[in-house]
């Protein structure tokens, strides 16, 4: 019996040892332009096969599956394989990591394989199957910059053009998108790529515009525009012809890069710069318009301060009006009606203030000035609005009229001699009153027991207030949500209009950063925001969510979206601002 058990055990071990699962490669050293074949083979019918991630490679073929089974001298053999064709993405030493498969309830893994990738090599070609043109000569990507020496905040355009010959482009993948550091950027939507005839290096070819972007440099000096890299799958014509004389096509791959561009940005001149200059560059008009100037006591007026024209409309602050103390002015409602074509931003931005009157009289709103740098004349220009006189027709006179008139220019309230004592009543109207004892009356008992009833109410309210005050986390959350909704109030009003909603959402995010971090709009590059928030101990995930939301605002204006996605973006913005407020306040 023992011998029989030992024999069965040895047979079982032999069966287990027979299971094989391994990875085989066509070569371990290859050029950057060569393809690698990988076969994952097993001698059992495995399930749940999981390939590796192929990090550093791009799968250009597969997976394909082959199964073979044979009988020789009464013994069966089985083999199953999964095959892939890979194209390396970079030079150096790459690792094919483990693949897994389940055979007979047991999980098996392959061994990692190191692959060395060298520079591109010359491949032997069949003269009949060889392409008529080289992929290196057939396709080129060029970045055309409108101006290489602009001023700070002067718009420049970058147009990425693809020049190609008689080839077929099957697919394209963007590998490296420029980040445009130290620039305010706006992508111009290209609804449909159009191919036209063009010339490259004196040769006629096809040309297509792939990408357009408007840039506003935010600082002076030499700034670099990062390169754009795109990977293309191509089909090149060969020397072989079909029955109708058409050339056969061969597949190829080509990566093209629009090289980095260096822009030498000039600073704005200091000579003649006005004291109130806030960074406006372009050609603008400036208007201050009241909704009305004659009104009654307690009525309100809307004062609209607007800047319109062409220039960096989103990158400077509008002047704030100065009103007399007797007028109550509320925080403005900011609106932007700005479009960004290839020539740069144009439109109008405005702040509308609600002003409420309190006393009768005349109240001047001082003239306001707006300064900008005119690119046409390369000089600073200042526009000054006229003084606005607000006339309150009725209501009580302003207190301390002499001081008010001296400080604010408000006219004194004059009272005629005949009306000085008009408020004194000259006649009396006495009414006889019957005596009634207070002691024992209803009022007496009400006043007697009222404190006893009030004491429990006061105790309950006090405990509730202490509980609320003690809830530090809850108070912080409520305060954060209140602050977020304050900044996002304008965006919420525009939820019915996609473009206006995302413009308002982007502006509210910038205003929040300006208020919390005390930075100007010109400093709001992504790297600068990330650096400052990190210094303020904000969490990296929250920072990434904030930056991702600001980036998506630009694309969402043109991408199709539903009311549901707009509401989700609004709620996401409330959550991110609330989280930042809590983290920056802790």
From TrEMBL:
<dbReference type="InterPro" id="IPR025738">
    <property type="entry name" value="BatD"/>
</dbReference>
<keyword id="KW-0812">Transmembrane</keyword>
<feature type="signal peptide">
    <location>
        <begin position="1"/>
        <end position="17"/>
    </location>
</feature>
<protein>
    <submittedName>
        <fullName>Oxygen tolerance</fullName>
    </submittedName>
</protein>
<keyword id="KW-0732">Signal</keyword>
<keyword id="KW-0472">Membrane</keyword>
<keyword id="KW-1133">Transmembrane helix</keyword>
<dbReference type="Pfam" id="PF13584">
    <property type="entry name" value="BatD"/>
</dbReference>
<feature type="transmembrane region" description="Helical">
    <location>
        <begin position="442"/>
        <end position="461"/>
    </location>
</feature>
